[in-house]
Amino acid sequence: MKQGWEAVIGMEIHAQLATATKIFCGCAVETGGEPNSNTCPVCLGLPGALPVLNEKAVELGSRAALALGLEIQAESNFARKNYFYPDLPKGYQISQYDRPFSANGRLTIMTAERDGHGHATEWKPMEVHIQRMHLEEDAGKNVHEGLPDVNKYSYVDLNRAGTPLGEIVTSPDFRTSWQAYDYVNHVRRVLQWVGASDADMEKGNLRCEANVSVRRIGETTFNNKVELKNLNSVRFMQKAIEFEIERQIAAHEAGEPVNQETRLWDEKKNETRVMRSKEDAHDYRYFPEPDLQPLAVTAEFIEKVRARMPELPDAMRERFVETYQLGYADASHLVSHKDLAEYFETVARITANPKLAANWVLGEFTRELNNSGRAAAAVLVSAEDLAELIITVEAGKINNNQAKEVFAEMFATGKAAAAVIEERGFEQISDPSAIAAIVDGVIAANDANLAAYRGGNEKLFGFFVGQVMKASQGKANPKVVNDILKKRLG
Ligand SMILES: [Zn+2]
After folding, report:
1. CA of 343 to the centre of ligand 1 (A)
2. 375 shares a domain with 326
3. Which residue, of 374, 407, 424, is where some domain finishes?
4. Residue 169 domain-assigned?
5. Distance from residue 26's CA to the centre of ligand 1 (Å)
6. Is the domain of 324 the same as that of 290?
7. N or C: which end of the chain has fewer CB within 10 A?
8. What per-residue confidence (pLDDT) applies to 372?
């Protein structure tokens, strides 16, 4: 960022809550069906139809709120947000306004300094104030067909209308695009972790908007802000914010106005462009939804939800560092996905060797996982099978290189370690008399090298080790080979 300026960024995230049915009716929430097949009088907005709140949406909303450090309010209200758009059949959206479902969130995230390539250099904690997360229904979708302005048809698909959303709004706490990036990644992971949302930006079940303004350092008032939309990935969002910061600084310095407006990110041109001038809140004429009771959430209900919540990733990372003596970076990698963290922990428990378990899970396992493009949950090698392999290596039955080969085969076929070891004939030879016989054969066949070694060329020791390993087809226990060679070569 240009010297003397700072950015002021607030984030709004819409997360689709992972319910099976919609928030105010029994229609299924699913993607890919025939347009308008999952609809009923309620979500079509037909006269006389009445909404009924889905308790599962409240439960998942509660999970999300607790995971984000928000206080769930004992009582909240639904409100009508009025606007006209073809994908909104009632002419209003049922949302929450002055009495949201949850508020006053204090969330600590880790955020990194980055080098010019965007690589994290140093991670630091940052406290984010989440003002609120309220519950609301999603609108439908307008589907456009044909070339722009030529033979263009527009259709309305209401399958998505009435899907439950949590809208998560922060204070303008972020000063750089990377802080916003780290925040969205944190929220995404935590929502997936507690099962509140699939939080997949590509599928549109996590959507984020950034409110961006800039000011000279030392200024305490805010300049006009721009709302950025159409951010289809966290990386595009970061780029869009970065572009917008530079655009606004240039405009202020040139004495040009920065309008309060909504801009879209154009990922082909790498720039933002105007979508519309921003409405103010009063344009929506919010008023309390007369068809729904206030939402009362008891302390008992909250405790029930809390009791079923999994350990959160930050707490798990701390525990891995303390209990297993793992480094911060390794522990952070392991908690990057819940499946991976649970996989590691099972391997660590069975092998009783957390360091080695972490090495395997972050090394061979992650390498094969990345190559296969699979998710950790869909992997054929169970944590129990990997643990068995590690125990076999530790017992000296096979060596490390053999173990890597065995693991690759296990990963590809799902076979157990013992089966692959037997098939490949990898059983390690540790019997000293058997190895001594091989050593003697190698020495007898390499007179010249033996003389050179005894004449002082100590580097040839490695040559003999290699020959013995080769003669044993890689099965000899390298430690025993070393011991016997040292004695024999003198
Ligand atoms: Zn419906």
Report:
1. 39
2. yes
3. 424
4. yes
5. 6
6. no
7. C
8. 86
